[in-house]
C-alpha cells in the first residue's frame, strides 16, 4: 500500500512540476539540458545531439545551421549543461564571434539561460561569464582565469598580437566555438599578414628615435635596469619555454618553439645594439620600397637578400618581436599604441625569418587602379590560414566551427588543416516554405544575363539587369537589397541605368540608396533606407558583396523582402596576393584554383542572400541574377537549406517568369501565419519532441558530410 | 452567390505550378501548404464568431479605393480597377442588405491626392452610380495613404460615440506618398477609435500591418479574385464593438408608406426631400414615406431626415440585422473515419469526401465543409432544423 502511495505522490509531484515549468528541460543523449524557451525547433535538438557527440569524442566539429534557427542558444545551453555535468572534462567555454553586436546578442542569450538556471536550481549562480567587446571595456586577465564562459572577438584568439595578451592562459580543457565562421580563413590570413607602406616606415623611424632617446636618458638615471634586462636575456626565454611545456600557455605562432630554447643572440642583447639593429633593418626596408616594378619573392629569398645587402643574419631577426617587447617593458612605456609601427616591423622580422613556407612577399610600387601615383607597399602575405589557427586546434580539446553558410563543408577542414569528428549540415524545418530562391538567367529578350567579364559591359546585359530591378521594385513590398560584385561594377551599371532612364522609373516605385566605401555615408544611407521601409515608401539598397552591408547587417522582415544578387561575386582575380594564394593552395592542399574561387564566390553569394531570412516567421525572395548559378558546380556549393528549395523549375528563368513566381510567393506569404501553425512541425513542445516519429524526423535533419 | 466566379481562360492565367501543391502533400506533414493553413483559419473564424459579443450595428464605413498606376495591373481580369469596382458594387449592395441602418462613403486616391467619391450616406443608389462612373477614370501616379486616411478621419471624427467608425482600404500599390509622418496619424486614429482594415492586392506592406494592428482592424492580402471577394465579404458583417464604446438609445422613425392613387382628388404631387440635392430624377411624386416627426416626405428608406435628423427605417430593415445578434451555433466537427452513418451531405446531397464532417447540434444532420461555411456565412440558419420545424 505504502509504496503504491509513494509512487502516486511522485507522479503527482511530477505532473505539478511539469505544469509549473513552461520552459524546457531536455534529455540530450543522457545529458540534462536546460533550455530557456517554451518551445524548441527540431533542428536545434538535432544540433545539440551532434554537439554532444563532438564533446564526448573530445574532437573538433564543423556544423552548418541556417541563421535564425537559434544556433547561439543551442550552443550555449548544451555546453553549459555539459560543463555542469562534467566539470572536470570541460572547464571553460570560449565563444568567439565576429562583431560587437553579435557578441552582445550572445551575452543576451546567456543572461536568459543563467536566469533560468538560477530559477530552476534555486542555488546561487556560481557561473561567471565574461564578455570582451572593445578596448574600452577590456579587462585584465586574472579574471578570465576564473570565468567559466568567455565571449569575445575572433582576434583575441587568432591574432598573435592580441592573443598573447588575452588568451594565452586559457586552460587546455576549454571548448572553443567560432560562430559565423564562414570567413575564418580570411581572418586567420589577415591576422598573420603585414602590410608596410612608406608611412609605416616613417612612423617607425620616429619610434626608433624615441626609443634611442629614452634609452640614453635611462642610462643616465637608472643604468641598473638595463643591466638587469641584459642578464635576463642571457638566460634566454627559458621561462616562456617552461610555461609552454607545462601547458600553461597557448603557444603563439609568432614565437616559434625553437627560439624558446635559445638565448637571445649577442648582437641585439644590449638595448643600444638592438636599436641600431632595428635602424639598419629599417633602412633596408626603405631601400626595398624604392622600386619601379613589382617584385615577388619568397621568405628565404628575402633573407638571402637582406644578408647580402646589410649583413643581417636570420637568427637575430627571429628574436626581434620578443626583444622589442622586453625593451618596451624595461623602459616602462605606458602607451604601446604609439609604438604600433615598430611593433609591426618587428613582427614582420620574426615572421619572415621563422616561416619559410606559407608566406610570400610582394612589393608593389603603385596601386593597380592608379598606376601614375607612386605608393609603394610591401605585402607580407600569409597564404596558409592553418598557421594562425594551428595552436588553437592543437591546444583545445574541442573546437567548434559553425555558421549559417559553411558549404561545401569538406573544404574548411582542408584549408584549415584539421580533422573534425563531426561534420554536419542542418536544414530548416518549415511550416511553410518561406524562402524562394530563383535563378534568373535571361531577359525577356532571351539575352543571357551574366556578369562574366566578356559581357559585363554589354548594353543588353546592363539593360536586362535594370529591367529586373525595375520589375521587382513594382512587386516586392518595402525593402529590396541588391548586391553587385564590386564597387566599380556598381558605379558603371548605375551610371548606365541613369542614362537609359531606368533609375527614374525605379524611383517611382521605391527610393534608391547606395552603399559607398565611406562608413559614415553608408550608415546614413542604411538609416534612411530603414526609415523608408518603415513608413511604406519602400526602398532599394544597392550594395556590394564582401562589403560592410553584406557581412554584418541583417535585413529582417520588411527591411529585406527580396535580395537580388547581380552576378557571381568572384574575388578580384588580378590581385597578385590572391594569385600567390591560389598557387599555394594548389601546391599544398591540392585544391584547384577554380574550385577555390567558386567556393569563395558562392559563400559570399550565400551570405548576401541569407541576409533576408533571419528566422522562421521571416520570408523573402532570393534572386540570383546570373545564368552561371544554374550550373551544378555553382548550385551545389550553396548551403543545403537554400539548395533544398531550389527546384528545377526555378533555374534559368526569364524576368517575366521571375515576376510571376515572385508575385505568387509574396501573396502566399502575406496570408496570416500564427504560432499554432508552426507548432508540431517546425516548433515543438516537450511532449511533441518526445514522440517517436518526431525523433525519427529529427534524425533526418542533420546530414553528415 | 448565384453563379460561379468566371474563371480566366487557361492561356490568360499566370504561370501556375499545380504540381507543387501535390508535391507538398507527398513529403508528409513537414511542409503544410499555405492553403491548408488558410483553410484552418477559415474554420476557426466560423467557430470563433459565436461568442456573446456586442456588435457595432450602426456602422460608418469609409472605403478607400487605391486608383494609382498599379491598379492597371492585369493580374485580376480585365484589370485590378475594373475588378475591384465590380466587387465593390456587390459589396455595397450586400453591405446595406446586412446593415440597413449603417452608412458608407467612398474615397479614391491617386496622384498623391485623395478625393471623396461619395460622402457618407445610407442609400446604395448614389454609391453604385459613382462606382459605375469611376470605371472609366484613369489610374495615375502613386496613392497617398496619409491623405486618404486623413480625409476619412475628418468626417468620421464628428460621428457620435455609439457608432462603429471604420475605414476599409483597398490597397493595390506597394508604396505610398505621404506629406507627413503616418505614425502620428495612426496614433490619432487610434485615439478616435477608428478601426482601419486593409485588403492588399499585391503583397504585405509593413505600414499597413502596423496601421491595422494599432487600430484593431484586419489585414489580408488576396490570392486571386475569388479570395478577394471572400475577404471583402468579411467586412459585411458588423465588427464587435469595443467595450469602451458607449451604448445609447437611438430614436428611430418607422414611417408608413402612403399610397395615393391618381383618382384621389385630394392628393397633390410633392417633392421628396432627398431630391433637394440630386438632379435628374423626376421631381414630383404622389405618395411616399412621411417622417413621423416633421412630416417631411421621402421616397426611399433608410434615410436620415434632412429636416429633423431622425433616422427613418422600415421594420424589415431592422429585422435583417437581427441574425448578427443571434448567430447560428457552430456545428460539431468530427473526422470522417469516426463518422458512422450515411455518407452524404444533408444540404448539397453530395458524397462526404473531406477529412471531417459537421453535425448540427440541434437536428443532428450532417454537412460537408463547403455547406457548413455556406450555412454559417450566408444562410444563417440550418436547413435541417428548418425542415424539422416545418414537419413538426
What topology does this entry show?
The complex is a heterodimer of chains A (about 700) and B (about 400).
Chain A: H1 2-20, E1 24-28, E2 31-35, H2 42-56, E3 60-64, H3 71-85, E4 92-97, H4 100-121, E5 129-132, H5 142-146, E6 149-153, H6 155-158, H7 160-166, E7 174-178, H8 184-192, E8 194-197, H9 198-221, H10 223-235, H11 238-245, H12 257-260, H13 271-289, E9 295-297, H14 299-310, H15 314-318, H16 320-330, H17 340-354, E10 359-364, E11 377-382, H18 385-395, E12 398-403, H19 411-416, E13 420-426, E14 435-440, H20 459-475, E15 479-484, H21 487-500, H22 502-509, E16 511-514, H23 519-534, E17 539-544, H24 548-552, E18 562-566, H25 576-589, H26 593-610, E19 620-625, H27 632-635, H28 640-643, H29 655-669, H30 675-678, H31 686-690, H32 692-701, E20 702-704
Parallel strand pairs in A: 3-12, 3-13, 4-6, 4-7, 5-6, 7-12, 14-19, 15-17, 15-18, 16-17, 18-19
Antiparallel strand pairs in A: 1-2, 8-11, 9-10, 10-11, 13-20
Helix pairs in contact in A: 2-3, 2-32, 3-4, 8-18, 9-10, 9-13, 9-17, 16-17, 20-22, 20-29
Chain B: H1 18-26, H2 34-48, E1 59-66, H3 80-98, E2 103-110, E3 113-121, H4 124-134, H5 145-156, E4 164-171, H6 182-191, E5 195-200, H7 206-215, E6 219-221, H8 225-234, E7 252-253, E8 257-258, E9 270-271, E10 284-285, E11 288-290, E12 297-298, E13 303-304, E14 311-312, H9 315-320, E15 332-335, E16 356-359, E17 366-367, H10 369-379, H11 383-391
Parallel strand pairs in B: 1-2, 1-4, 4-5, 5-6, 7-14
Antiparallel strand pairs in B: 2-3, 8-11, 9-10, 11-12, 13-14, 15-16, 16-17
Amino acid at each position: 500500500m505504502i509504496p503504491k502511495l509513494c509512487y502516486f505522490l511522485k507522479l503527482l509531484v511530477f505532473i505539478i512540476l511539469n505544469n509549473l515549468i513552461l520552459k524546457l528541460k531536455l534529455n540530450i543523449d543522457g545529458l540534462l539540458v536546460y533550455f530557456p524557451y517554451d518551445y524548441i525547433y527540431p533542428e536545434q535538438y538535432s544540433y545539440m545531439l551532434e554537439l554532444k557527440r563532438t564533446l564526448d569524442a573530445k574532437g573538433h566539429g564543423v556544423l552548418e545551421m541556417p541563421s535564425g534557427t537559434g544556433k547561439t542558444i543551442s550552443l550555449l545551453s548544451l555546453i553549459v549543461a555539459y560543463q555542469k555535468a562534467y566539470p572536470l572534462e570541460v572547464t571553460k567555454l570560449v565563444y568567439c564571434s565576429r562583431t560587437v553586436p553579435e557578441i552582445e546578442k550572445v551575452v543576451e542569450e546567456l543572461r536568459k539561460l543563467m536566469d533560468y538556471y538560477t530559477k530552476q536550481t534555486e542555488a546561487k549562480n556560481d557561473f561567471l561569464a565574461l564578455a570582451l567587446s572593445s578596448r574600452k571595456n577590456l579587462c585584465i586577465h586574472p579574471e578570465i582565469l576564473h570565468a567559466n564562459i568567455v565571449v569575445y572577438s575572433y582576434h583575441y584568439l587568432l591574432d598573435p598580437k592580441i592573443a598573447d595578451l588575452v588568451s594565452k592562459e586559457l586552460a587546455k580543457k576549454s571548448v572553443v566555438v567560432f560562430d559565423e565562421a564562414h570567413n575564418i580563413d580570411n581572418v586567420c590570413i589577415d591576422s598573420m599578414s603585414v602590410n608596410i607602406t612608406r608611412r609605416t616606415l616613417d612612423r617607425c623611424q620616429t619610434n626608433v628615435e624615441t626609443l634611442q632617446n629614452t634609452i640614453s636618458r635611462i642610462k643616465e638615471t637608472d643604468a641598473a635596469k638595463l643591466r638587469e634586462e641584459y642578464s635576463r636575456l642571457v638566460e634566454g626565454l627559458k621561462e616562456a619555454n617552461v610555461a609552454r611545456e607545462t601547458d600553461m600557455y597557448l603557444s603563439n605562432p609568432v614565437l616559434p618553439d625553437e627560439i624558446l630554447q635559445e638565448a637571445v643572440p649577442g648582437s641585439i642583447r644590449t638595448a643600444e645594439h638592438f636599436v641600431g639593429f632595428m635602424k639598419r633593418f629599417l633602412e633596408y626596408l626603405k631601400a626595398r620600397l624604392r622600386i619601379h616594378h613589382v617584385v615577388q619573392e619568397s621568405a628565404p629569398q628575402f633573407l638571402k637578400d637582406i644578408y647580402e645587402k646589410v649583413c643581417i643574419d636570420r637568427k637575430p631577426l627571429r628574436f626581434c618581436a620578443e626583444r622589442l617587447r622586453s625593451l618596451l617593458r624595461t623602459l616602462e612605456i605606458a602607451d604601446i599604441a604609439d609604438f604600433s609601427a615598430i611593433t609591426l616591423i618587428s613582427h614582420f622580422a620574426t615572421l619572415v625569418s621563422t616561416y619559410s613556407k606559407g608566406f610570400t612577399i610582394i612589393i608593389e610600387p603603385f596601386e593597380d587602379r592608379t598606376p601614375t601615383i607612386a605608393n609603394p607597399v610591401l605585402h607580407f602575405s600569409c597564404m596558409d590560414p592553418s598557421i594562425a589557427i594551428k595552436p588553437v586546434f592543437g591546444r583545445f580539446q574541442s573546437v567548434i566551427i559553425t555558421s549559417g553558410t559553411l558549404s561545401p563543408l569538406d573544404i574548411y577542414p582542408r584549408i584549415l588543416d584539421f580533422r573534425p569528428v563531426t561534420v554536419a549540415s542542418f536544414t530548416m524545418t518549415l511550416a511553410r516554405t518561406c524562402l524562394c530562391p530563383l535563378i534568373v538567367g535571361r531577359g525577356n529578350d532571351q539575352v543571357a544575363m551574366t556578369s562574366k567579364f566578356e559581357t559585363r559591359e554589354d548594353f543588353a546585359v546592363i539593360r536586362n539587369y535594370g529591367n529586373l530591378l525595375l520589375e521587382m521594385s513594382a512587386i516586392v513590398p518595402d525593402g529590396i537589397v541588391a548586391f553587385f560584385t564590386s564597387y566599380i561594377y556598381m558605379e558603371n551599371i548605375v551610371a548606365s541605368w541613369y542614362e537609359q532612364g531606368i533609375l527614374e522609373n525605379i524611383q517611382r516605385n521605391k527610393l534608391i540608396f547606395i552603399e559607398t566605401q565611406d562608413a559614415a555615408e553608408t550608415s546614413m544611407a542604411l538609416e534612411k533606407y530603414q526609415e523608408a521601409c518603415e513608413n511604406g515608401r519602400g526602398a532599394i539598397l544597392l550594395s556590394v558583396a564582401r562589403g560592410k552591408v553584406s557581412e554584418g547587417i541583417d535585413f529582417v522582415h520588411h527591411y529585406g523582402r527580396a535580395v537580388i544578387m547581380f552576378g557571381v561575386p568572384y574575388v578580384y582575380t588580378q590581385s597578385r596576393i590572391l594569385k600567390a594564394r591560389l598557387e599555394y593552395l594548389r601546391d599544398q592542399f591540392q585544391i584547384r584554383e577554380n574550385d577555390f574561387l567558386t567556393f569563395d564566390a558562392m559563400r559570399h553569394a550565400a551570405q548576401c542572400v541569407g541576409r533576408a531570412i533571419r528566422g522562421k516567421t521571416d520570408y523573402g525572395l532570393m534572386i540570383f541574377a546570373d545564368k552561371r548559378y544554374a550550373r551544378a558546380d555553382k548550385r551545389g556549393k550553396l548551403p543545403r537549406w537554400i539548395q533544398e528549395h531550389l527546384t528545377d523549375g526555378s533555374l534559368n528563368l526569364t524576368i517575366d517568369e521571375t515576376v510571376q513566381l515572385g508575385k505568387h510567393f509574396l501573396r502566399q506569404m502575406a496570408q496570416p501565419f500564427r504560432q499554432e501553425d508552426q507548432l508540431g512541425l517546425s516548433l515543438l513542445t516537450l511532449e511533441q519532441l518526445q514522440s517517436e516519429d518526431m525523433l525519427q524526423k529529427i534524425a533526418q535533419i542533420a546530414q553528415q558530410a | 452567390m448565384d453563379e460561379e466566379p468566371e474563371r480566366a481562360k487557361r492561356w490568360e492565367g499566370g504561370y501556375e505550378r499545380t504540381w507543387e501543391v501535390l508535391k507538398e502533400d507527398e513529403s508528409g506533414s513537414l511542409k503544410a501548404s499555405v492553403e491548408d493553413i488558410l483553410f484552418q483559419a477559415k474554420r476557426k473564424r466560423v467557430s470563433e464568431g459565436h461568442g456573446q459579443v456586442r456588435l457595432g450595428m450602426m456602422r460608418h464605413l469609409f472605403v478607400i479605393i487605391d486608383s494609382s498606376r498599379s491598379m492597371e495591373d492585369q493580374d485580376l481580369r480585365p484589370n485590378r480597377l475594373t475588378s475591384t469596382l465590380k466587387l465593390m458594387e456587390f459589396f455595397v449592395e450586400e453591405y446595406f442588405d446586412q446593415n440597413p441602418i449603417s452608412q458608407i462613403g467612398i474615397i479614391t486616391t491617386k496622384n498623391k491626392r485623395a478625393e471623396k467619391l461619395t460622402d457618407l450616406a445610407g442609400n446604395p443608389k448614389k454609391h453604385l452610380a459613382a462606382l459605375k462612373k469611376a470605371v472609366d477614370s484613369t489610374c495615375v501616379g502613386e496613392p497617398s495613404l496619409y491623405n486618404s486616411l486623413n480625409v476619412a478621419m475628418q468626417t468620421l471624427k464628428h460621428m457620435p460615440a455609439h457608432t462603429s467608425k471604420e475605414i476599409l482600404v483597398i490597397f493595390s500599390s506597394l508604396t505610398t506618398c505621404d506629406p507627413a509622418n503616418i505614425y502620428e496619424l495612426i496614433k490619432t486614429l487610434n485615439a478616435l477609435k477608428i478601426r482601419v482594415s486593409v485588403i492588399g492586392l499585391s503583397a504585405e506592406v509593413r505600414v499597413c500591418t502596423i496601421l491595422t494592428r494599432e487600430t484593431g482592424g484586419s489585414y489580408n492580402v488576396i490570392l486571386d479574385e475569388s479570395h478577394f471577394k471572400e475577404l471583402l465579404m468579411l467586412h459585411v458583417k458588423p465588427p464587435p464593438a469595443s467595450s469602451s464604446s458607449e451604448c445609447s438609445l437611438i430614436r428611430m422613425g418607422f414611417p408608413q408608406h402612403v399610397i395615393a392613387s391618381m383618382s384621389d382628388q385630394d392628393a397633390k404631387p410633392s417633392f421628396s426631400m432627398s431630391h433637394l440635392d440630386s438632379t435628374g430624377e423626376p421631381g414630383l411624386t404622389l405618395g411616399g414615406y412621411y417622417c413621423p416627426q416633421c412630416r417631411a416626405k421621402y421616397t426611399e428608406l433608410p434615410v436620415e431626415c434632412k429636416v429633423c435628423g431622425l433616422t427613418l427605417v422600415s421594420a424589415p430593415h431592422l429585422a435583417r440585422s437581427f441574425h448578427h445578434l443571434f448567430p447560428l451555433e457552430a456545428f460539431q466537427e468530427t473526422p470522417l473515419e469516426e463518422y458512422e452513418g450515411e455518407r452524404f451531405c444533408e444540404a448539397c446531397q453530395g458524397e462526404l469526401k473531406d477529412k471531417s464532417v459537421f453535425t448540427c447540434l440541434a437536428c443532428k444532420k450532417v454537412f460537408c465543409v463547403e455547406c457548413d461555411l455556406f450555412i454559417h456565412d450566408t444562410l444563417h440558419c440550418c436547413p435541417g432544423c428548418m425542415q424539422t420545424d416545418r414537419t413538426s
